[in-house]
């Protein structure tokens, strides 16, 4: 499976339950990568989406430990039940889309990470693991910098090399 995330210079991903910045170009990139695929997210991330609703044109799966939690999509209440649920899909079609807890839990199952890197530091309270400090992850692709909303950012791709 794959992770997809937008990070700042310090690999920060969110603050107060929201993204650090809204970049239309990154949203387009996210939609292109995940359209028609399976997206896996934590309950907090689902609730941060517009209207707290699952993303259109994708199979949404949400994780919550609350066995009574209801959403307009599949809900799994543990890592094991998610992995069982995912058995019916091609693993290459599964995207882990956050937030911090869910990335931490499922990065060990990912072989690819699409990381949008913003060349700015934000105040933040949620982070992604710094893959530049991990021997088993390698940067394989870095796109040209883009400028939007007063920040430079670029699309990168990391691969697990074991
Ligand atoms: N920059 C990006 O690309 C990006 C992407 C996504 C999200 N974000 C940001 O990340 C932040 C949210 O991250 P977060 O870490 O607070 O929350 P999260 O990972 O979205 O969701 C956490 C919730 O998921 C459930 N959960 C976690 N592990 C579980 C497990 N093993 N089994 C079952 N359920 C599990 C729990 O729900 P219950 O409490 O219901 O049990 C937990 O409270 C927000 O600021 C959001 O904007 C950023």
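Q: What amino acid sequence fits the structure above?
A:
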């Amino acid at each position: 499976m794959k992770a997809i995330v937008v990070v700042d210079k310090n690999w920060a991903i969110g603050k107060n339950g929201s993204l650090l910045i809204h970049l239309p170009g990154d949203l387009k990139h996210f939609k292109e990568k995940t359209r028609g695929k399976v997206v896996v997210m934590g309950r907090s991330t689902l609730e941060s989406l517009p209207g707290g609703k699952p993303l259109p044109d994708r199979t949404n799966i949400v994780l919550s430990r609350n066995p009574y939690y209801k959403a307009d999509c599949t809900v799994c209440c543990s890592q094991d039940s998610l992995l069982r649920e995912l058995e019916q899909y091609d693993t290459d079609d599964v995207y882990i889309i956050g937030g911090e807890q869910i990335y931490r839990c499922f990065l060990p199952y990912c072989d690819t990470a699409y990381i949008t890197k913003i060349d700015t530091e934000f105040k933040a309270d949620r982070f992604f693991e710094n893959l530049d400090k991990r021997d088993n992850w390698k940067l394989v692709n870095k796109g040209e910098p883009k400028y939007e909303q007063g920040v430079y950012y670029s699309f990168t791709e990391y691969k697990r090399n074991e």
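Q: And what stands out in the fold?
A: Helices lie at 24-34, 43-48, 79-86, 100-106.
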